Amino acid sequence: EMGKQLDSLSDVVSFGVAPGLILFQLLRISFAAEPDGLDTPFYWMLPALLVPMAAAWRLARFNLDTTDRGHFVGLPVPAAGLLIASLPLLMLYNPMNIQLIIVNKWFLYAIIILISWLMVSTLPLLNLKFKKFGFSDNKPRYILILASIPMILFLGWLAVPVIFITYILVSLLFKNQLS
């Protein structure tokens, strides 16, 4: 039991607090690019705190839930953290000039709200654990994996947000079959 709590604590720090700091810095960069942006009050960056708070909430709910559903309830915190951690990499490699989108404060606020909401939501989302390997039992898992391979090969780091969107869409499309 204590191991489960410590694992969740490390997940909150690694996939909640660290991504929150990334978003905080991206918001600072976004505001710094504006005229008089360096004078932007600190509180405009505070929405970045929603991500670690949502991560803590989601993990606390997960630890209290004893039901074995076979799917996730809400977005897993590591998935949210990995998506956010990909943003600086996308800025560095800048495929399709995506840096202009990432440093847009309204895009960042939308990401913060969407990711935080997905973590605390009760949406049934695909669990990638295989109990059997048959196609009929794992159709959404195989679709996600097979769709991800060409994305990784052709999109590089841009594959991370595209696979994330695909993950959400496959989960919603097959939500009645998740087990």
Task: Name the features.
179 residues, 64% helix, globular
* Overall mean confidence score, pLDDT: 93
Distance between the termini: 25 Å
Could you give a short account of the major beta sheet? 2 strands, antiparallel
Query: What percent of the residues sit in helical stretches (DSSP H or I)?
Result: 55-70%
As a whole number of angstroms, the C-alpha radius of gyration is 18 Å
In sequence order, what are the helices and strands, one letter per element?
HHEHHHEHH
Q: Helix count?
A: 7
Strand order of the largest sheet: 1-2
Secondary structure: number of strands? 2
Unreliable runs, pLDDT <50, ≥5 residues?
none
Approximate shape:
globular
User: Which structural category fits the helices and strands?
Assistant: mainly alpha
What portion of residues belong to β-strands? under 5%
Entry summary:
The protein has about 180 residues and is an all-alpha fold. The chain is about 65% helix and about 0% strand.
SSE layout:
Elements (H helix, E strand, L loop, with lengths): L1 H31 L17 H15 L7 E2 L3 H17 L5 H4 L2 H16 L3 E2 L13 H17 L3 H15 L6
Antiparallel strand pairs: 1-2
Structure characterization notes:
This protein has seven helices and two strands. The chain has helices spanning 2-32, 50-64, 77-93, 99-102, 105-120, 139-155, 159-173, and strands spanning 72-73, 124-125. A two-stranded antiparallel sheet has the order 1-2. The mean pLDDT is 93.
